[in-house]
Amino acid sequence: MKGFTRFLIQRLIALVPTILGLIILTFFLSHVIPGNPALILGGQEVVENPTELHALEAELGLNKPLYIQFLIYLIQLAHFNLGFDYFQGQYIGHEIATRLPVSIELAIAAMVIGLPVAIYTGIFAALRTNKPADHATRVGTLLGISMPVYWIDLILIIVFYEYLHIAPAPFGQLSPFIKAPTPLTGFVILDSLIEGNLAALGSSLSHIILPAIGLSFAIIGTISRVTRSSLLDVINKDYMRTAFAIGFPRKILINKYALRNALLPALTVTAIQMGGLMGGVVLTETIFSWPGLGLYTYDSITNLDYGAIMAVVIVSGFLFVLVNLLADILYGVVDPRVKY
Amino acid sequence: MDVSGNINSQPKKKLQRMKNLPWVRSLSKTATLFLRNKTGLVSIIVLLSYVVIAVFAGYIAPYSPTAIDLAQRQLPPSLKHLFGTDYFGHDVFSQIVFAIRLDLELAFLAVTIGYTIGVLAGVFAGYTGKFTDNAVMRVMDVFLAFPVLIFAVAIAIVVGEGFWAIVIAVSVTSIPGFSRIARSAILVTKNELYVTAAISQGASKAHILFRHVLPAAISPTIVFYALGLGSAILLSSGLSFLGVGIQPPTPELGAMIYQPFFYSELTDWWLVVFPGIFIVVIVIAFNMMGDTLREVTDVTLRR
Q1: How many CB atoms lie within 10 A of CB B258?
Q2: Can you tell me the distance from the alpha carbon of A233 to that of A244, in angstroms, rounded to the nearest whole number?
Q3: B241 contacts in chain A (CB < 8 Å)
Q4: What whole-number distance in Å separates Cα of residue B258 and Cα of residue B260?
């Protein structure tokens, strides 16, 4: 365990320059975006009145030199203050805290749908290499990684909402006619379960299914391909061939000896995908008006809301790095060969 | 042997010598293996047909892609308008034909730029020593931690509207991936026995790099060039879908799909379905090409 602690500390120290770089890059990138936030925020009033414009700029801190603005931002960040969102009239930290669970809920739903299918098809194809079943799976997974997610989403909406009328209107997490559960955890499905609010539960489940399916295509494509190739690698190992040759029961051999080794790379890919999904999926959330981090990002980019853009990028970048670290740690737990 | 003193013998010999060069033999072998592979052949045929469409777009499209015909708005597919017409009366088929040209240009340009810079950075990091390696790779780590789409949107907005905004956004976001792959390929090759042998014979660093390390290290990265083309098409059409980069009336496949969504005219399914199919087919072709190249260039699988 001592080796593990050292590994963890080393990895955490290595995170510092990455996170710092992320903050620096985000700050300067968001400040070279053309446009004046004070003009957008103040609207018609400040356009006609330069003194008010200057006052607003001073209030936003825009009149100070860029490096001073950066230093102020860093100090605020060290106090866990992400700034104030003038467009939503809310602290950005609060905004992100309420939106993060919304994105994570969608990410989990997409994984719940995608992961079993991905693992199953990966195993299915690997055990039938170069047979028609393998080729069919290959085409399917290729489709999964080659379809633009916004296209899948729109097709799903056209088929299930516009034509079949099975799915609810693609606007947000709940139908507007249903009383929303009191936010305890921020996860709508979980909250309605806790409250015993069956109407909200049904509505939230039916709203989450289309965006989750839309996201699951890419998950299935990627993870299934990784599972297939790593299982094939293991099956072609010498010890597997020997075990086959001496007549070891095939089922036990695959399930116990091959799969456990083969699923390790799949775990890494799953973690990376999850890290990406949790930070918000801009396209899907925009299409389904899903009030998560992705939609917030899109809105703040169109509003030129510096503070919000920076906050979202930093939070999702941080999540991404953290999930990667978590995957590395899990790797050691699952694989006894990994030593720290 | 040509004893008759034929005038052609000199160039012929030259050609023969060319054919025996190791990299020419390896390349022609790779090409043969690639074309014999069913997946590889299909991907090449798809790509060639897209290139043909792109080159002869002006002859293939029956209408002008930007011609507005308000009398022919939102018509479903028919013989007159094969893929229907959109909100402004544009012929969707003609728009797709020109959009294919634009998207191919975008993808090839962006990935070539990103690949060149990325591979150069990766080779530099992997070959020059521990300090530069750490410096370059830490920077790349920062870029990798950025959510790709958000990063690309930010760059595109900074650059401004239009073609080059997307090219720069897509190429910059692809650099860290390419540099990582090139670096790891260099690190593996650098420690091969034949490289050590060359060092022990006193070969210069540059000689070893260009003669022994690069040729072996570059070939696996070609796979990712092909795969990168696929993701470039997805990313650039996604950017246009979000409304950054290519602006209407310039036809772009992603921007075309955005239109029915923006005007909430999703019942006009043909406006969504057809441009999307053309994206999916070319991305699949690039992915298949990458897969086949991976199989074909893997020397350990070659017998």
Answers
A1: 22
A2: 15
A3: 148, 150, 283
A4: 6
- Chain A positions touching B273 (Cβ under 8 A) are 155
Q: How far is B27 from chain A (nearest CA, A)?
A: 26
Scanning the structure block, which residue is given the tokens 């017998």? B303
Least confident of A12-21, B61-70, B136-145: B61-70
Interval B115-121 mean pLDDT: 93
Which candidate, A209, A257, A212, places its Cα nearest to that of A235? Answer: A257
Chain segment A145-179, per-residue pLDDT in tens: 999 999 999 999 999 998 888 888 888 888 878 77
Among candidates A18, A283, A298 on the partner chain, residue whose Cβ is nearest the Cβ of B142: A18
* Secondary structure (3-state) at A56: helix
Option in B142, B238, B280 nearest A21 (CB): B142
Rounded to a whole number, what is the distance in Å from the CA of A309 to chain B's nearest CA? 9
Under 8 Å between Cβ of A213 and A154: no
Cα separation, B273 vs A290, in Å, equals: 23
Q: Which residue has the higher pLDDT, A49 or B218?
A: B218
Q: Which residue has the tokens 């923006």?
A: B262
Pairwise CB contact (< 8 Å): B288 & A142: yes
Q: DSSP of A134-170, one letter per residue? A: HHHHHHHHHHHHHS-HHHHHHHHIIIIIIIS--SPPS
- Taking an 8 Å cut-off on Cβ atoms, the answer to whether B241 and A150 are in contact is yes
- DSSP state, residue B35: H
Residues of chain B with Cβ-Cβ distance to A142 below 8 Å are 284, 287-288
Q: How far apart, in whole angstroms, are the C-alpha atoms of residue A184 and residue A242? A: 55
Q: How far apart are CA A224 and CA A142, in angstroms?
A: 10
Residue B302: is its pLDDT beyond 60? no
Task: For A139, name the nearest residue in chain B, comparing CA atoms only.
Answer: B284
**What is the overall mean pLDDT for chain A?**
84
Nearest to B150 among A19, A287, A313 (CB): A313
What would the mean pLDDT of B250-258 be, rounded to a whole number?
87
What integer pLDDT is reported at residue B75 of this predicted model? 78
Residue to test with chain B: of A150, A159, A232, most B Cβ within 10 A: A150
Is residue A276 within 8 Å of B150, Cβ to Cβ?
no
Between CA A188 and CA A181 the distance in angstroms is 7
Query: Counting beta carbons within 10 angstroms of the beta carbon of residue B131, is it exposed (0 to 12), middle (13 to 18) or buried (19 or more)?
Result: exposed
Tokens 């013998």 -> residue:
B9
pLDDT tens digit string along A201-238? Answer: 888 899 999 999 999 999 999 999 999 989 988 888 88
Say which residue the tokens 């209407």 belong to.
B248
Residue spans of beta strands (DSSP E) within chain A: 84-85, 90-91
Could you tell me if A17 and B138 are in contact, meaning their C-beta atoms sit under 8 angstroms apart? yes
pLDDT of B303: 42
- Domain A93-334 class in CATH: mainly alpha
Report the predicted TM-score, pTM, of the whole model to 2 decimal places.
0.85
Give the integer Cα–Cα distance in Å for A85 and A94.
10
In chain A, where the domains are located: 2-91, 93-334
Helices first, then strands: H and E counts in chain A: 16, 2
Q: What is the number of residues in chain A?
A: 340
DSSP H helical segments within chain B, as ranges?
Answer: 9-20, 22-36, 38-55, 57-60, 92-128, 130-145, 148-159, 163-190, 193-200, 205-207, 214-241, 253-262, 269-297
